[in-house]
Amino acid sequence: MQSNETNRHTLSMSRRTFLAEAGVASAVMGFQMARAGEKPKQAGPNERLNIATVGAGGQAASNIRELDQTGQVNFVAFSDVDDERAADIYKQFPNVPTFKDFRQMLDRVKDVDAVLVATPDHIHAPATLAALQLGKHVYCEKPLTHTVHEARVIAQAAAEHGCATQMGNQGTAFEGPRRLIEWIQGGVIGTVREVHVWSDRPTHFGKILWPQGVERPTDTPPAPETLDWDLWLGPAPDRPYHPAYCPFKWRGWWDFGSGGLGDMGIHNIAPVFDALQLDAPTSVTASSSLFNADSLPLATTVHYQFPERNGRPPVQLHWYDGGILPPRPDELEEGEELDPEDGVILVGDQGKILVEGWGGNHPHLIPQSRMETVQLPPQTIPPSKGHHLEWLDACRGNGTTRSNFGFAGPLTESVLLGIVAVRTRRTLEWDSKSLRVTNVPEANEFVTKTYRKGWEPGKLG
Fold first, then answer.
1. Suppose 156 and one of 19, 276, 292, 409 were both cysteines; which one would form an S-S bond, judging by CB atoms 3.0 to 4.6 Å apart?
2. Which of 266, 326, 260, 332 has its CA nearest to residue 298?
3. Residue with more model confidence, 278 or 7
4. Residue 53, φ and ψ in degrees, nearest 5
5. Strands 192-199 and 203-204
6. Residue 49: which residues within 8 A CB-CB, separation 6 or more?
7. Does the structure show a pLDDT above 90 at 129?
8. Sign of the C-alpha dihedral, residues 276, 280, 286, 290?
9. pLDDT confidence band for 238 (50 / 70 / 90)
10. Residues 6 or more apart whose Cβ sits within 8 Å of residue 89
11. Beta-carbon count within 10 A of 5 CB
12. Structure confidence at residue 32 (pLDDT)
């Protein structure tokens, strides 16, 4: 049997080959692809990387501080549409130039090796593609993009430009997913044909973290003076400012986010994708609570059918969010219940694995007593140096990241195809090569989207 690292390398190469051959992104869907030629600069092994950021508040601030703690970076520019939101970072790094518009930053600041993108979902693709086109290494928060189509284009652009990339699903640096991969590929529970994955988002122990299934506000309060609302909207359709959208509440609106699936689905499905070497599903169906043309439903279930691949049998993957849980496994001990926040159940023909918590970090066999009686494979996958350190190493040409865009692109495509199924309430037959739903033509309008003039990905202004 090949080692996991060899298997992973082979899978990554097959995806890159597929992306290079597909060629459908611009021709079929009208997406502007990368302009010719700029390749990333190769930093020396002891050289600090010059990093510019798209976003400086919220999650971006967390990433900036973690990168700073490595002692391996210089921040050469920050951009954020809200000076107040970014104020703490601007104060911490008073000598770094700041911009409101990331396009101006990328155009004017020339000594950039790599770009951090940490914004609402709808900005991910325009900012990431702009950086890749300039030959910059990119770290982009999850989900990689806002649409299925954008994910294909971004993965293709990263491969074409040879950039080191990382999507911000930090769980890929955990030890738990490494053990899960070893157990699955070592046959500990036999052949896996069924998986259940869940998150309580957008709720949390009964509390709603951000609204979903709500009506669009009709009042029009003034935007804060520190916020450039037009830049915050970016490629999204024009609408008046309202605090119902930002900060953070944007996840519940179709134009900006993708709800619990886009938020935690990326984290919790990623280790399953990796362990089972999944790629594109052939069909997806979904059901949900009520929603409207503006706001996502509060709770969804999505059912993916993945085909046979590399000699492995088909897999059904079931997603649950908004407080919905899968059926309780009979193998749980009396009084033991599923983690209501996040988890995974992998069903094999010789047993089951339960993963508790987000990102695949705490896998164990069920019943728990099997952990003492089953011969587990040796630990062969080396530990991560750290999620951000993986990316910095890759920027210097030292290996790749575990969630590079060759992996993150197909994962994001599959996750967001579930959003298309939710919006159409139909079983969708999916042709990944042509990037189209074949049986429900009207569903394809949700595979991509229309961009405001001047914000089409591929343009810098």
1. 19
2. 260
3. 278
4. -125, 140
5. unpaired
6. 43, 72, 73, 74, 113, 114, 137, 392, 395, 396
7. yes
8. positive
9. very high
10. 56, 57, 60, 61, 64, 78, 80
11. 11
12. 45
Tokens of residue 100, six digits = 């409101």
Tell whether the model's pLDDT for residue 289 goes beyond 90.
Answer: yes
pTM over 0.85: yes
Which of left, alpha, beta for 139 (phi over 0: left; psi -120 to 50: alpha)? beta
Q: Token pair for residue 452?
A: 């405001």
Which two structure tokens, joined as six digits, stand for 371? 């952990």
> Which domains, ranges and CATH numbers included, belong to the chain?
4-169 (3.40.50.720)
Residues near 263 by Cβ (< 8 Å), separated by ≥ 6? 142, 143, 199, 201, 202, 251, 257
pLDDT in tens, 396-407: 999 999 999 999
Q: In the structure encoding, which two tokens stand for residue 169, read together? A: 């699903």
C-beta of residue 460 within 8 angstroms of C-beta of residue 130: yes
CA 400 – CA 403 distance, rounded (Å): 9
Residue 395 pLDDT: 97
Task: Report the residue count for the chain.
Answer: 461
Confidence label for 310 from pLDDT (cuts 50, 70 and 90): confident
Bridge partners (DSSP) listed for residue 295: 253
